[in-house]
Amino acid sequence: MTQEKGEKVFAGPSYQATQTGSFTVPLSAPPGNHRMRIRSDWSTSDPSPCGFDDKSETEDYTLIVTPLNCTANPSNVIATATSTTAATISWTAAAPPPGLGYEYLVSTSPSGTPVITTGTTTGTTVNITGLLAGTTYYVFVRGVCNTTDKGYWVMATLTTGCTTIVTTPTVCPVIIDVQGNNPLTTFPFVADPTVHLECEVASVNLVANVTLREPTSYLVEQVSYPNPEPIYAFPAVGPGVQAIVSDDVWASSRTNLGFRFCFYGNSYTLLRVLVVAIPLVIIYQVLQARYLNTPFMGYTMILILVT
Q1: In-domain check, residue 23
Q2: Helices then strands, each counted (H, E), the chain
Q3: What is the per-residue pLDDT for 276?
Q4: First-residue to last-residue Cα distance in the chain
Q5: Beta bridge partner(s), residue 38
Q6: pLDDT at 259
Q7: CB distance 60 to 50 below 8 Å
């Protein structure tokens, strides 16, 4: 037998012929039979739960925790630190739910005292603030059936970290996360994963994750060319038929892409159209053969990405 933290509920003064004492049943003790062990040892004031020698004695008793009238107890109580000074407590509701909701308390001891904070709620989630960094807390939740009857406490633990939450923002398709984690395969997907450093962690390695994909199929289609050739209008340089007589004609304003476009490590959300008039001898010859010497002034349109 090993003694877990919080199991010792009474220790008497050293070397007394008669001992008298009392203790409070832990809040998390469920109804039923529990073994209570009493140990005395002449050679130490802090006897272990197990052992045998001619100067010690061990006696076991049965402690009966009677069921309460209120049986609407929560289950699956989970306590999670969300920062160095805050936490979230959640649980599964009892069925049927208690008439007056749930009572909760937070303590730095498994006995439930001292009480750091307490309260009531009709929901199944509570946010706790004002905690200390690098501290272990014990949280208790129970059902409140009516103004008289309450259920037994269900306990969970949490430890706040020594540093604040480190947010790793996503840049383009690159996601930063702790080495060993792959946010691209995590479900559900989190675009901006966070890192929570515990007190005993001196450093953390961050890794850039990126998805590189190759085409798996191709679509080949015949492009149809209208005849006669229609007149195309480019709002970037003006309505109707454009007579391009100078080089480098810029659009008067930038266009919002509506999304973030990454190009060679840079991220863009705007573009500006540049129309350049150039002699297109080869295209001109093709047009001569196709459109019977239709006059043609060649030009090309260039999209310039701007930040």
Answers
A1: yes
A2: 1, 17
A3: 58
A4: 68
A5: 59
A6: 72
A7: no
Q: What are the distances in angstroms from CA 56 to CA 14, 40, 48, 162, 282?
A: 13, 5, 10, 44, 107
Q: Are 84 and 162 in contact (CB under 8 A)?
A: yes
What is the mean predicted confidence (pLDDT) over 87-113?
Answer: 94
Closest to 134 in 3D by CA, of 168, 161, 173: 161
Q: Could you give the CA distance from residue 41 to residue 43 in angstroms, rounded to a whole number?
A: 6
- State the DSSP H helix or E strand holding residue 186, giving kind and residue range, or none if neither: none
* Cα 274 from Cα 278, distance rounded (Å): 13
The token duo for 203 is: 């450093």
- Helix (H) / strand (E) element for 279: namely none
Determine what percent of the chain is predicted with pLDDT higher than 70. Answer: 67
Instruction: With CA atoms as reference, report the closest residue to 246 among 277, 273, 272, 274.
Output: 277
Quick one: pLDDT at residue 20? 80
Final residue before a domain boundary, out of 213, 241, 275: 213
Least confident of 45-49, 74-78, 134-138: 45-49
β-pairing verdict for 75-81 and 299-306: unpaired
Structurally, the chain folds into a number of domains equal to 4
Band of residue 92 on the pLDDT scale cut at 50, 70, 90:
very high
Which residue range is the domain that position 170 belongs to? 163-213
Residue 111 counted as domain residue: yes
**Total Cβ atoms within 10 A of residue 262:** 12
Q: Per the domain annotation, does 7 fall within a domain?
A: yes
The verdict on residue 237 lying in a domain is no
Q: Output the six-digit token pair for 108.
A: 């730095």
Region for residue 145 given its phi and psi (left: phi exceeds 0; alpha: psi -120 to 50; beta: otherwise): alpha
Would you call 290 helix, strand, or coil by DSSP? Answer: helix
For residue 75, what pLDDT is reported? Answer: 94
Whether pLDDT at 272 is above 60: yes
pLDDT value of residue 247: 58
Q: What does the block give as tokens for 227?
A: 């005849």
